[in-house]
Design goal:
The protein has 12 helices and 14 strands. By secondary structure, it is α/β, with parallel strands linked by helices. Strand 5, helix 3 and strand 6 form a beta-alpha-beta unit. Its main location: other.
Length: about 350
């Protein structure tokens, strides 16, 4: 799988008689509600969205809720009260946003769901995301291929560290992983000593690093006192950092008995950990591409046009099947990170080689 960087059609900029930039968004304001700045990934999303919209002439009001559900509700209500023309939302917990989004619909303000599906609302027009089940499939396939699960005579221990139960993406990612590894669990090639293989038992509220670390510490001390953990299926780089810390605390050594640790988002710290050997892989999700697709959706709803869509079946939010564009994720490790992340300009060599985190 290769990340597509194909340009999308959008509004053209022009120079006004005063020499200032004008575009299709001139005179219009887009409210962008992001979940948190605690993850590098969401900062990039916000920055990319703001830049691309401003390049088209839109004013952008970008808000971060710092994973506070009520804060995001208030931010969205304030954006609506300020008279934004369109609303882009990456939800902390979409179930809490139903009433605020109903206000948007009543006011005729279109809503675009960004990377997290807005559930139980008919106010959403489109959804821009990555192939969330595909992320899980890519993680599962990476482990399958690199541990040679189809041919090995050995049995490997594993544990699951999945995403937040209030995020539909986390469920789809879990389903993608399990679709790949369930046959190996049934065969006895993969053994989960804690028995925590359901999403309900393996999820991590708010994708929180400290929560993942504490749970990993408990699992290692309870189930792995006499046997080593071989594979940690982590759904997000932030969880991977917590797993890393727990493994270090339990005496695991990189290069000796260190487990395979997966991840998602290819954060800068994760890439440094991959190079040092304390994380095995991550999933690259080019936020420039995702922002670009979302911007085309904003353009469409504000100009009575149709954006590019490639999925009209998967994303049923309980009220409607939301027309979606799915960008393609890609597994990265120490062998291909330069090609995927440096050669495309996502990171520079200097950023990756820097000691600062």
């Amino acid at each position: 799988m290769v990340l597509s960087l194909v340009a999308c059609s959008g509004g053209k900029e022009k120079e006004s008689s005063e020499g200032t930039k004008e575009g299709s968004g001139s005179g219009k304001t887009v409210g962008v509600a992001m979940p948190t700045q605690s993850s590098e990934r969401w900062i990039k999303d916000g920055d990319n969205m703001k830049k691309q919209l401003e390049d088209l002439g839109y004013k952008v009001d970008l808000q971060y809720a710092e994973d506070d559900v009520q804060a995001q509700v208030s931010q969205i209500e304030n954006l609506l009260a300020s008279g934004v023309d369109c609303l882009v939302v990456a939800a902390v917990d979409s179930s809490a946003l139903v009433n605020a989004l109903a206000q948007a619909k009543s006011a005729g303000i279109p809503v675009i769901a960004y990377d997290r599906l807005l559930m139980d609302t008919d106010a959403v027009s489109y959804y821009a995301t990555f192939d969330n089940k595909g992320v899980g499939t890519a993680i599962g396939k990476y482990v399958e291929e690199n541990m040679d699960l189809a041919n090995t005579k050995e049995a490997y221990t594993f544990e699951l560290f999945m995403g937040s139960p209030d995020d539909n993406n986390a469920v789809m990612l879990y389903e993608g992983i399990m679709e790949v590894i369930q046959p190996y669990i049934d065969k006895g090639t993969l053994i989960c000593k804690s028995g925590q293989t359901s999403f309900e038992k393996s999820n991590t509220l708010r994708w929180d690093q400290q929560t993942a670390m504490k749970r990993c510490e408990d699992i290692l001390s309870t189930y792995y006192a006499d046997e080593k953990l071989d594979i940690a299926f982590s759904a997000f780089d932030g969880l991977s950092y917590g797993i890393k810390a727990a493994c270090e605390g339990a005496g695991y050594k990189v290069g000796e008995d260190w487990p395979m640790i997966t991840g998602q988002d290819a954060e800068l710290m994760a890439i440094k950990n991959i190079i040092s050997g304390s994380q095995t892989m991550s999933i690259a999700k080019d936020t420039r591409v995702l922002a670009e697709k979302c911007v085309t959706m904003v353009e469409a709803v504000l100009n009575d046009a149709e954006p590019e869509i490639n999925d009209t079946e998967q994303y049923d939010n309980g009220k409607l099947v939301v027309p979606s564009y799915l960008c393609t994720p890609e597994a990265v490790d120490k062998d291909n990170y330069k090609e995927i992340l440096v050669d495309t300009g996502y990171y520079t060599e200097e950023e990756i080689s820097s000691d600062s985190e």
